[in-house]
Amino acid sequence: MRGTAQVPASKSESNRALIIQALAGGGQLFNLSDANDTQLMQRLLQDPVAPVFDAEDAGTVMRFLSAYLAMTGRQAELTGTARMQERPIAVLVDALRELGARIEYAGQEGYPPLRLLGRTPQPATAEETEPIELTVRGDISSQYISALLMIAPTLPAGLRIWLTGKVGSRPYIRMTQALMQHFGAVCRDLGEVLEVRPQAYQPTDYTVEGDWSGASYWYAMVALAPEGSYLTLPTLRRYSWQGDQAIAGIMAQLGVHTEFLADETLRLTKNAPAARLTQDFTDCPDLAQTVAVVAAALGIPATFTGLESLRIKETDRIAALQTELAKFGGALTDAGEGRFAVSSESFQVTGQTVATYHDHRMAMAFAPLALLGEIRIEAPQVVRKSYPQFWQELEKVGFSIPAPAV
């Protein structure tokens, strides 16, 4: 397998940049993601009078818009798919209420849909110099924290967030802070305390980087490809804000070498893998499915930690992985105390059908197994959420994807 694969633009950067651009009142964004989540965010932000906003199955759209609409005083309902209505949001709603947002639950307490009823402003006074303080759990979703950070510069005295518990996906918080600072905000990261001073965002241009999460599937393909295989991936930065750049170090242990040919172009080549893998996914949970499939396919015993947030993603990703890996002779076993073991016995690809559970990452994590034999992917259109051109890019590097029988 040899060639060049185009990865999508980062939807994580894109959706943050769109919210900040709206708060800044201007600036041009280049190379925005064509993912459904980003297209959806653009459409909803451009509708100034909609009585109902449908975030569909997009976590960042639901969490970021909750904060944006609430703190800009909009009155509307914010809803989503049936699965979205099972994903908790009370941590964010409680914090927004402390900041003056008037929010009700339209259904089950603690879950979408939400009724946004405007905001009770907290006027600044001559004596008011200290930021409002919030205590927020960091062990559920970093998107809650990012949502609060992005609206913080608009508060009269700014915001100070005290984080409690184990903070997951911290690189996504750093990405949010970096983008905020690019648009003129003043942020301080003191570990368990995040502080944002009151400061109007400045209209600024920004070019979105390629998506390291999307690149992870190409790393998986090189890991499973024959000797002599290589791939070139453009638009990925050597010094990235994205936590999923960790895939380069993880896949080095699974036999993939990363070489930067230029600042935004890298080349992947196949090497010998390590004998086993131990990995903490606390800061990069979206990589877990991809790495689990590769480790099982290569027969490399692996121990994973930091998978807590996978239970509340598009599906219960731990349960989905356990079910689908078993079809091939692989296993993801709960070893207790937050540890999971990946193993395999006689791993074979012989035409199995992979269920995707309405989860784009299930489809793309299992697709590289086609290098070992024919497979079928159910509901392949789920990739539109983050990587609409995924199947076309596979065909460009030589995969055969016949049209499904009608």
Task: Give an overview in words.
The protein has 12 helices and 20 strands. With 406 residues, it is α/β, with parallel strands linked by helices. It folds into 2 domains: 201 residues, UDP-n-acetylglucosamine1-carboxyvinyl-transferase, Chain (Alpha-beta prism); 185 residues, Alpha-beta prism (UDP-n-acetylglucosamine1-carboxyvinyl-transferase, Chain). The protein has a 4-stranded mixed beta sheet with strand order 1-12-14-13. Strands 3-4-6-5 form a 4-stranded mixed beta sheet. A 4-stranded mixed beta sheet has the order 7-8-10-9. The longest helix has 14 residues. It is globular and about 65 Å long.
Structure described in brief:
By secondary structure, this protein is of the alpha/beta class. It is about 30% helix and about 20% strand. This is 3-phosphoshikimate 1-carboxyvinyltransferase.
Spell out the key features of this protein.
406 residues, alpha/beta, UDP-n-acetylglucosamine1-carboxyvinyl-transferase, Chain, 2 domains, 4-stranded mixed β-sheet, 30% helix, globular, EPSP_synthase, RNA3'P_cycl/enolpyr_Trfase_a/b
